[in-house]
Amino acid sequence: MKKALALLPILLLCALRAPTYADDVPVKLATQELPIPKETSSVTQHSVIISGRSIKYTATAGNLVIKNDKGDAIGSFFYVAYTQDGVKNLSHRPLTFLFNGGPGSSSIWLHMGSFGPVRVETANAKATPPPPYRLVPNQYSLLDKSDLVFIDAVGTGFSRIVGKGTPKDFYGTDPDIESFGKFIQRYITLNNRWNSPKFLLGESYGTTRAAGLSDWLQQKGIALNGVVLQSSWLNGFVDFPGPRFSLELPYELYLPTMAAVAWYHDKLPQKPANLPAFLQQVRDFALGDYAHALAQGVKLSVADTQAIAVKLHDYIGLPVPYILNAKLRITPDRFEKELLRGDDRTVGRLDARFLGIDTDAAGESPAYDPSGSAIGPAYTAAFHWYLANDLKYKTDLTYKVENYGGAFRNWDNGQRIDGQEYPLMDVEENLRAAMTENPHLKVFSANGFFDFATPFFETEYDLDHMGLDPSLQKNISYGYYLSGHMIYLHVPALAKYKADLANFYNSAQ
């Protein structure tokens, strides 16, 4: 995923409001309209072997235009759909909509790395060499379980604001959910998929969108079978929205990720053999003795402060004097810089298995995210080649892998919840409402142990605190992987992830 996407939680703290530009073009005057493209598509035939079975499928790359409530065209969504050939009863064939987040990211990361029928090979936990890149049939594709539709948000990929559309129609928590909902409505109508089992799979801010969509679609008469939340961001109030000492909870929720990363890089005083069991100890400490210590503020005794610092050293590997100087409060960026300082290396934010080299080894924070820059060129080049040569899709538009100058910087991070306006989003309530009104809805939470962008313990906390009735808690299941934010970058993790999803799809139909 890209450097700017590594700022995911930070962007939600900015409370940016309506932009003055639609992508890179000044917003039209009231009497003007942006061009409305025709709905076109390129249809090609392919096959892939999954679990020893050859699956013939149709790939459709195209665009669909959505309209506002007045019937005016406002946006054109680019998508690539993969549908299994020879299916006689579409009511028994699941359909999954997949998307990345940002906001401001296209969906080539999920498309070319996770569960599409083709994926790009990248180096494991290090920078992928320059071209030529290898595109390989994806034996871990979900196409054996479901048809797949990869969607680019308006303002990214080939998706554009059109007609009477404005940035306010797309660049914000609520309008983003509504625009994707309208695309899904139109797609299932045009393709006769109203009665198909339906799933959503979102990554990063895509989980924000998926959680919101679960409720939006439910209100439109579209009940989902399942929602997959990969590397979740569900509540903008739970992370670091305020001054350093104003909220203790984020320090507690990031602690297990720090412990996992220290374990991976062999920086623990005594490395345990069982990572899951070790992380459970850290969870208990984080919301137990550590939370109690932080809650006391300056009233914490010198002896107790020292004891907590020693315990933190045992769990996350940083030196006791450093922990004491930080007042027991370690931010993720400081940890990423400090853990391997003696080796003149930093660890990645999206995936802490990746190592970076800073010009200034004495700094407070890493200069860049090595896990973002390591794979960006490979995904970008491979996708463009695949689009032109395999999907045969032609257009004069420039594919925007990222659009942080438009969508990211101009995003309205607020949300309307139960009639009230809030400065940050909290889609936990959307998901709770959808699961309550549709008690058959299943949710799978996929988490990389080494992900600092969306730490797994924060996701657990969010899902545990959304107020879901205890009788429905069994509908939420979890997967944990020895990888980072983009779980599929580690092929063994991708294989396990696919196996977990195969069981999840079976349970949700």
How is this fold's topology laid out?
Elements (H helix, E strand, L loop, with lengths): L7 H4 L9 E2 L2 E2 L14 E10 L2 E15 L5 E12 L10 E5 L8 H6 L4 E3 L14 E3 L9 E5 L8 E2 L11 H18 L7 E7 H15 L6 E7 L16 H16 L10 H21 L6 H15 L3 H6 L6 H7 L7 E2 L7 E2 L13 H4 L2 H14 L14 H5 L6 E3 L2 E3 L5 H10 L4 E7 L7 H9 L11 E6 L9 H17 L2
Parallel strand pairs: 6-9, 6-11, 11-12, 12-17, 17-18
Antiparallel strand pairs: 1-2, 3-4, 4-5, 5-9, 5-10, 7-8, 13-14, 15-16
Helix pairs in contact: 3-4, 4-13, 5-6, 5-14, 6-7
For this entry, give a set of tags.
Rossmann fold; alpha/beta; 19% strand; ten-stranded mixed β-sheet; two-stranded antiparallel sheet; globular
Short description:
The protein has helices at 8-11, 108-113, 173-190, 205-219, 249-264, 275-295, 302-316, 320-325, 332-338, 370-373, 376-389, 404-408, 428-437, 456-464, 491-507; strands at 21-22, 25-26, 41-50, 53-67, 73-84, 95-99, 118-120, 135-137, 147-151, 160-161, 198-204, 226-232, 346-347, 355-356, 415-417, 420-422, 442-448, 476-481. The protein is an alpha/beta fold. It has 2 domains: 4-237 and 376-507, Alpha/Beta hydrolase fold, catalytic domain (Rossmann fold, 3-Layer(aba) Sandwich), CATH 3.40.50.1820; 249-372, no CATH class.
